[in-house]
Amino acid sequence: MTFRSRLVFGLVALMVMVxxxxxxxxQINVTLxxxxxxxxxxxxxxxxxxxxxxxxxxxxxxxxxxxxASTTATTLRISYPSPITSSPSTFxxxxxxxxxxxxxxxxxxxxxxxxxxxxxxxxxxxxxPLPALSAPLPSTGGSFRLVGVRIDANGKTGAxxxxxxxxxxxxxxxxxxxxxTVINGIGPGIASFAIGARSGQTNQGAATIFTNRTVPDTQGxxxxxxxxxxxxxxxxxxxxxxxxxxxxxxxxxxxxxxxTGVTLALGAxxxxxxxxxxxxxxxxxxxxxxxxxxxSTSLSTTExxxxxxxxxxxxxxxxxxxxxxxxxxxxxFPIGLGLNNDNPASLGLxxxxxxxxxxxxxxVGPVTVVNIVAANTTMLMPYALVxxxxxxxxxxxxxxxxPFGTSGGGATxxxxxxxLNFFPTSSAGGAGTPFSLTTxxxxxxxxxxxxxxTLAAGAVWTVLLSQALTAxxxxxxxxxxxxxxxxxLNGHGVGTISDFRTYSLATNVLVLPxxxxxxxxxxxxxxxxx
Length: 530
Fold this sequence. Notes:
Blueprint: H1 3-24, E1 28-34, E2 40-41, E3 47-48, E4 58-65, E5 74-79, E6 103-109, E7 118-120, E8 125-130, E9 142-147, E10 150-151, E11 160-166, E12 173-175, E13 179-183, E14 186-187, E15 190-195, E16 207-210, E17 220-226, E18 250-256, E19 262-269, E20 275-278, E21 282-283, E22 289-296, E23 304-314, E24 324-333, E25 364-373, E26 377-386, E27 391-398, E28 418-424, E29 435-438, E30 460-464, H2 465-471, E31 478-486, E32 491-498, E33 504-507, E34 510-512
């Protein structure tokens, strides 16, 4: 073939290719862009896959025309990493949630007639029919948004990605995006639950009930710290629609071991960025849960909610005669599955029967919020000895008999036994072996005890340490300190070291805060009380 004939053949081939271009190389590029949720709760059965609280946020599907020609219909398939727990209005179970179902919004240009989304529960996939188009195609392209898809995030970790595909690639639609991130991270809804107070507030600690049914400390405070900045949401923030879903993020607080006859009054103490309500402000043995519902929160600040025990009331027959504790646990609420597990006709389909959103139960705690403490007095004699000719005299007064009366703030009269805990110093140096003595009907050294070994209200027990040692089955000398535990409140004491001739030295008997409520290891300096 000559050069001229080869040139003519090439020109003819080029003309054929140009003539065929509109039909053979027509393309619409399809691109997916996500507006992901920054983080979702790891127990959320209805986790949002788009920026929370933003109306219309979802996956943006855009189409651009590369060559003008007719196209045939295809289906855009977007698969999610776990079961989808929302549905479109055309689904057999109806729109779930009704306020923010799966839907297509803002369809324009190429996609002005895009079909309604279809939920494929078997493959956890949304299927969207893309239309057949006749030339000429809109040069400006087109777009639409897929909104309202939620997934079960329970057990998930890290970023969550949706993958995209077309049912056919032989119809001039070309998918240029294979995956998009729909959730940037997964985290706990509640970071911590503890006794404490918000910054700038007073830490009330745990409340205290005595076993004689008096309440020396009627207040307490506990704090619930948000797991991440957007974990707590109002009903509106839990939606990507124009109205809020059926409920906000809620926290259920369960109080355990509440004795009959005890009532705890509760209040919510919120930061300025949050408003919340408590469904049950009065906790009892038969109504031992309350729910915190958020009316507004910050999605950009990690917030701390303070729940206060504002008062503790105890009836005259309250079952608090045995020491113990009331504890509390917290979990996000309501509890549910997200998918139907009850109705055989709709097993595995999205449901809003338990509320929306719902969570898998994950209790944080328990936290001790009320201590039920024995009605006793703990005293300490820091120095005592029996070393001839010296002995130590001890006097303990039961001052629960007083002139004030209950209406005037007086004590409740009560009798009780007394226990002496001896901590000797070894004669060779170092600590000796501790021992104890508890008064009873058969152990009543000294004077002032009743026949049953108790010290009556208004009475004083006087005893020499040498007498107490004999009653405890001990002999010889003693140098050390003594803890005195009186099984009544308002006990006070005094001690004297003497040779009973020319020398006497008063030794302090200190009243300590109740160790069950104020642990000695947590106190830097113990208070000096007489």
